[in-house]
Design goal:
By secondary structure, this protein is an all-alpha fold. It is built from six helices and no strands. It has one domain.
Length: about 130
């Protein structure tokens, strides 16, 4: 299972942030009002979903295999990480769903989504630093 943790770490810290920023910029450039999302645009929330699913698999494995350490996984601030992962996935989906406030921002919806995702990551990191 350390393979899942490694993939989650590499995707989450290196590859996924870069892809999300590049994709958000590309969506801002190719956005057409009132046009349905293209396949490329629909890739944006899928990338976040992949990261959340890998993180969830690692979290569940840690709870099951951690035995005595499982209680540490459910304490603040570590519990914020999976919760904010689900929030990030929701925000990513809202950026392309018609009728939502993020979608009403037009071409800037995915860019604002990336900014919100960045703030959730920074918030989690700051909560971890403050609590240690």
């Amino acid at each position: 299972m350390s393979v899942i943790r490694t993939i989650h770490a590499i995707l989450g810290e290196q590859i996924l942030p870069l892809l999300l920023v590049l994709l958000a910029i590309l969506i801002a450039v190719i956005w057409k009002p009132y046009a349905p999302p293209t396949r490329l645009m629909r890739l944006f929330p899928i990338l976040v979903d992949i990261q959340v699913l890998l993180g969830l698999a690692w979290f569940i494995y840690g709870l099951i295999a951690g035995f005595g350490q499982a209680a540490g996984w459910l304490r603040f601030p570590f519990i914020l990480h999976p919760i904010l992962g689900f929030v990030a996935a929701g925000v990513a989906h809202l950026s392309l769903r018609p009728g939502t406030r993020l979608n009403q921002l037009g071409r800037w919806g995915p860019v604002v989504s990336v900014a919100i995702l960045f703030l959730t990551v920074v918030g989690t990191a700051l909560a971890a630093i403050v609590s240690t």
